[in-house]
Amino acid sequence: MSSLRGVKCLVTAGPTYEAIDPVRFIGNRSSGKMGIAIAEDLAKRGAEVTLILGPSSEKIPNQIAKVVRVESADDMYQAVMRLIKSVRLGIFSAAVADYRPQAVAHEKIKKTGDQFSVDLIKTVDILAEVGKNKLANQVIVGFALETNNEEENAKQKIAKKNLDMIVLNSLNDKGAGFQHATNQIVIIDKENNSTKYELKSKLEVAVDINNYIELNFFSICD
After folding, report:
1. How far apart are alpha carbons 49 and 72 in whole angstroms?
2. Annotated catalytic sites, by residue?
3. Cα–chain-centroid distance for residue 23?
4. Which residues contact 121 (CB under 8 A, 6 or more apart)?
């Protein structure tokens, strides 16, 4: 029997869209595949999973009973903060926008010149807020997508955001990151132990991630 059976889990996945006007937005290339795969595997282990999903066209497996659909970074923040205190495990794989337009036009912006600029302001750092308010019995897992100084940047995020572990993706690895059916990861824990995995399907990667969590943070008698 899995030691995650009956454990309440929260998983975030997908991108966020930050509106410029009613038809335009700032977004990213995240599909949500990785987070959905993690949530699916947790559910197969008997965990009680809530998936908070940004704009994604990916099919949701039947095993995932609770799905909260959001669009913007603020939507995701509000949903996370509403639910986080009720879960033992939080896995934050969503690619949340770091910035949003300072002002959103109520009507479609007309094309009037050769240049157009948008003033951006920071969004709330959801993972930092979760780490700052982390409960004693919670396990919090972050994701890092890096292009340089990958492991060092990931280790800094663990300490800065009070995480138990982080899953590192590098865009320098062929077949990893956004818009791929495969992924290649390095898992780093708060003791700076790192484990590198081969390129695999995202469902296989999800199994590796959840195996690591179950082995290192949960037990049958927990």
Report:
1. 21
2. 28
3. 25
4. 99, 100, 101, 102
